[in-house]
Amino acid sequence: MSKKILKSLFIIQLLCANICYANDMVAVLGYQNATNDELWQQQKIGFGIKSLLQQALLDKNFSLLDEKIVLGMDNQKLTEEQLKNNWTYNENQTTPESLNALAKKHNLNHIFWVKITEFDEGKNSLSLGPFHRKEFNKTLTLEVCRYSLLSNNTECREGEATESRILTSTGYEASDKVSFKDTGAGQMSQDAINQALTELLHHE
Questions:
Q1: What is the largest CA-CA distance in the chain?
Q2: From 41-45, 68-72, 110-114, the region with the lowest mean pLDDT
Q3: Predicted model pTM
Q4: pLDDT of residue 181
Q5: 16 found inside a domain
Q6: 159 domain residue, yes or no
Q7: How many domains in the chain?
Q8: What residues contact residue 23 under an 8 Å CB cut-off, 6+ apart?
Q9: Order of all β-strands in the sheet with 110-128
Q10: What is the DSSP letter of 88?
Q11: % of the chain exceeding 70 in pLDDT
Q12: Top-confidence range, 47-61, 79-93, 108-122, 159-173
């Protein structure tokens, strides 16, 4: 079979998969930080990672349950800042009983969440007179998890992203003026989430 035919079949498969998700109503729980690294404990980063997972699901044509309903605050008037403060979840939300109850209550086919499992950072510095150079090597590992109402089971898949940079500053400081997805941490998170989500959906 020619490479062109194989490529065409692969594209058709991806398109068909996305169409299949068009009627799937899903919810996204908060982000869980499983590392002790200070960077990944920041509130804005946690909210940003949750948003990246939501966008990745929208790109797959899933329909997302309103976030205020997921938080049980649909009758309250919440500001954007208040929503940003509710970016995390606790382990009680991901017990089989809690997930099953949430899915049945809101007619959800799936419930997703993301967990950072490891963040390794290596630094090398070099100083020669007025010349200063720092090399950063970073590896981010995360899991995207999905609860399925039909099977009443939870599956998780791992995603990993690496980055090497030569910088004169850390370059990863969260800021209201810079979108998280445009930072180095955001780009790594997006790559890892897309990798894990693709793996998860292909194992249905």
A1: 66
A2: 41-45
A3: 0.74
A4: 80
A5: no
A6: yes
A7: 1
A8: 63
A9: 63-64, 25-33, 110-128, 131-148, 153-167
A10: B
A11: 60
A12: 47-61
Tokens at 4, concatenated? 């062109």
Inside any domain, residue 3: no
CA 102/CA 178 separation, integer angstroms: 34
In a domain, residue 127? The reply is yes
Distance of CA 196 to the CA centre of its chain: 9
The three-point CA angle 34-153-102 to 5° equals 80
Positive/negative CA dihedral, 31, 36, 39, 43: positive
pLDDT at 194 (0 to 100): 94
Domain that holds residue 108: 24-201
Beta strand 25-33 with 63-64 is: parallel
- The CATH number of residue 34's host domain is 3.40.50.10610
Q: For residue 189, what are its two tokens?
A: 């998170």
Per residue, the 3-state secondary structure of 9-74, as one string, reads: HHHHHHHHHHHHCCCCEEEEEEEEECCCCCHHHCHHHHHHHHHHHHHHHHHCCCEECCHHHHCCCC
CA atoms within 13 A on the CB side of 124: 6
**Residue 37, token pair as written in the block:** 């690294």
- Sign of the four-CA dihedral 98, 46, 71, 179: negative
